[in-house]
Amino acid sequence: MSKFAEGTVGSIEPAKTERWALPHVLFALYIGAIILCLVLLTTTRYFDPDEFQHLEMAWLISKGVAPYRDFFEHHTPLYHLLASGLLETTRYFSVSPVQSIILLRWIAVGLSGAALYLTYLLGRRLGGHRVGGAAVMLLASNSIFLTKAIEIRPDQIGVLAILAASLCAAIATERPSRQSRYWLLLSGICCAVAVMATQKALFVLPGLGVHIGTRIKKAGGSLWPPALMLIAGGIVGSLPVLYYVLDKGILLQFVASNFLGDAMWPRNYQIGLKVVVKTLLFDTLFCALFVAGLRTINRLWAKDDRMDPYGVVVRPLVSLLVGLLVMPIAQQQYILLMLPYAAIVGGWMAIRLLDQAASRWPARRFVPPAAILVCMVYAACHLAAAFARPDAVALDKVRYLTTQTPPESTVLAGWSPGVAFRRPAFFYAVLHNEIRYFVPPAAFEHLIDDWRAGRNRPEIIDFDDDVRAVPSLAAYVAEAYAPTGVSTLWRRKP
């Protein structure tokens, strides 16, 4: 173990050998209650429209349809390949589509729970059990984490993979040895898995790479062997996706859609600003501890190289923050990648402040329970807001589509459940405003001409706000379709 693990850093960080008088039962109840609430929310909380876009991509892959070539997509497909296998498996066991959706949400909760555990492990390696526990409490009380924890999306795998990559990097650089190369190989594999799940994870790589290189250079080692191990790991971690895209003959489309195409995405910094402001308002304690912790760590780091191990958290976090300025649109799921790192930094600061308070306050044994109760209040408010937003309409749409239309039917939807479990009648399976940016105006006119000629005319159109935003589509739907009585689903007239 390094000198950090021996608790010898004095006033720089909390000593790890000192036993924290944490009420373990209260902590366990807190985390258990969070997980239980998330499981309950899987069947009741509103559905983010992204969930059905990811669900449709996975379902189409399970039917042999190739993304990027046969329908428009801009997400790397690792999650969808895994989810497609699950959907095929559930079909053989007569699991209904609605039950499959709930199952995927349960898996999302499991992945989020695993992210909490890896956050604890990384925090413990840097600052001991107390820092790891504080990081978990902060992360589990964050509104964005709780919002995205149950959703069908690839970002949970991305978060898990970058945490695993950071943990492997921390182990490899703690005391460089022959075994370090294997940890770096694993770190490279995890980085590739993260990018193949969500290309947003690319912004982690510069910070993590700089940390590994700096630590190895300070230890007097050569950079070439570690670099080769990281590259080898990256190749190994990319193999499943590379095999799939090569087998489908869509390598060029894969690169163009996920990397080159995203660079041309319409920029909207207002969305990212709204996400940041909302986070500051709803997670004030989390943000305050994070900012204070980052400032304090950097100040101590400038004076003492013994803070170097914290670079495995700080440097990727900084590169992700820089990514906010590069990303065309920084949504909540991008912030999600930062949260475990920020929680560890905030947890470190929380323990530092609690130690100072305990040394001055006679009733010091009440300090840890009071801190947990504060996190509980934050989590309870966020979860109460989630329970107050039920959504039965989305699943009603899925039930209607899958029971009242033939399997070979095609559908058209803007950005809603109407796209799920049926083939799209248009190359652009979803039509929210960001994707409409890429659709040539004449494409809608050609599409309607084809439908009037009886070619690939959709059985169902989800006449949501995004479909209504295209005047030619809205006029055609009003002429040739009639409401089904199930929310915004319209069915073609005989």
What does this structure look like?
- The structure is a single chain.
- The chain is 67% helix and 3% strand.
- The chain is mainly alpha-helical.
- It has 2 domains: 19-387, no CATH class; 393-492, no CATH class.
- It has a 5-stranded mixed sheet.
- Strand 4 and strand 5 (489-492) form a beta hairpin.
- Helix 1 (24-41) runs parallel beside helix 16, helix 4 (97-127) packs antiparallel against helix 5 and helix 13 (284-303) packs across helix 15 (332-360).
- The longest helix is centred in the N-terminal third of the chain and has 31 residues, at 97-127.
- The termini are far apart.
- The model is unreliable at 1-22 (pLDDT under 50).
Radius of gyration: 24 Å
**Estimated structural class:** mainly alpha
Number of helices: 21
Order of helices and strands: HHHHHHHHHHHHHHHHHEEHHEHHEE
Q: How far is the N terminus from the C terminus? A: 74 Å
Main sheet strand line-up: 2-1-3-5-4
Query: How big a fraction of the residues is strand?
Result: under 5%
Largest sheet features: 5 strands, mixed
User: How many domains?
Assistant: 2
The total beta strand count reads 5
- The average pLDDT is 89
